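Need the bound structure for adenosine-5'-triphosphate, inputs here:
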Amino acid sequence: MPSNPPPPQTLVNSLASLQAPPTRRSIVSWVDAAGEHTVQLQDRTLVGSAAESAIVIADPTVSRLHAEFHFDERGLWVRDLGSRNGTFVENVMVREARIETGSKIRMGGTTLKLGSEMTTEVGPQFWPAHRFGPLVGGSASMRRLFASLARFAATDLSILIQGETGTGKELIARAVHDASPRKQGPFVIVDCAAVPDALFESELFGHVKGAFTSAVAAREGAFEAADGGTVFLDEIGELPIAMQPKLLRVLESRTVRPVGSSEHRRVDVRIVSATHRDLRTMVNAGAFREDLYFRLAGVPILVPPLREHPEDIPLLVETILGRVPPPELLAATANRPWLGNVRELRNFIERARAVGPQQALQMGGQASTPETTTTSQTAEGASAVTSALKSVAFKQSFREFRDAWLEIGEREYLTRLLTQHSRNISGAAREAGLDRTYLHRLVRKHLL
Ligand SMILES: Nc1ncnc2c1ncn2[C@@H]1O[C@H](COP(=O)(O)OP(=O)(O)OP(=O)(O)O)[C@@H](O)[C@H]1O
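Answer from helper R.:
Posting the output first, comments after.
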């Protein structure tokens, strides 16, 4: 593994070498119950309502394996696979037909429009499986994401993961590390939202004994601890502006200088960072350095919110539950906004395990914003807990029951604590006897 810093031009070149010259590709666009979609066609592209299809159409009038697009030397074809409601090209029912840019293809009640676009993408556009390491997802957007992760994990390029809270950014960072040649090396997480400004430099680069008053012993920073592996900079948008040039210098020189030391130490790390913010708008607002942004975003990855790929919910529920979910649980997860994304879905499933889907729904799993968390809601939460306890379905193991109730109790405690302290984390942590960093994590975990 190269330990010397790749100069920016090399970074650009190595990215360019992964890209093919622009070519024209066929795309189809459609609107269904899950929203608007555009997908690039491969040599053979299966279309249906089954989650395993390359193009998944959320429409019950579309058969699970409805039709196939395929190319041959004469052009692009659509072939009906014996679907229930048929495939139509310009309103004529077809078994197989050649189609061209602009053609309208109707499958059941959904119309797909054929278009084209210039692209430089190479490699498999869709990951062939519904899993990538610990991540699950069979939707087109997740399988496209998995294909990018697989492709870039093998490189040493810096990856910037952007997505709403609970979309799986940390899990993605781990999956990238595990799929990379550095997988035997360490994976070190720095939660930039939880590090006090004064300790940032020491947290990242370490310090020598006596570097500052509380430095009673030398301490290794995250970069040295991750030597040979990956540093995951979570919530990178919270990195104080004063730290940004220091981080940039380390990324450029691939050396760190612990606080209080004059010695520069060489480190060999891969950087993966994540944020729920749009760093580009922060750059425009002067809150984030443009040069650092480009250093971090060698490969920008956008993780879709759960509401944009609701077809993945059943698979996620099954994975979280560890077995085929009962129909009433699946029904309870449908048509909800899931503002807290997969984390909120996980919390909901854990509550539903303890009290059943209906009670879990009544207890409210939706993310509440600071502005909307009121004392009356807290009281409602408390009575919901009390009534939920009365109707516990003692179906699961003791361990599952206990864990689910701990979650409920934890959330209730934190809600009251934060309300009492007007969301002042330091004050709340003091009263609760918790470390501020830990409280911060709990608050994020429960979407409070
Ligand atoms: N695609 C997925 N497959 C399986 N589990 C997932 C997936 N995405 C997220 N999760 C689960 O959802 C929860 C939240 O994921 P994670 O902590 O990675 O989100 P995040 O985007 O980093 O959140 P935050 O921005 O709040 O830190 C975790 O329990 C994680 O295991």
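Comments: The pocket of adenosine-5'-triphosphate is lined by residues 135-137, 163, 165-171, 276, 316, 319, 342-343, 346, 444 (CB under 6 Å). The CA atoms of residues 316 and 322 lie 10 Å apart.
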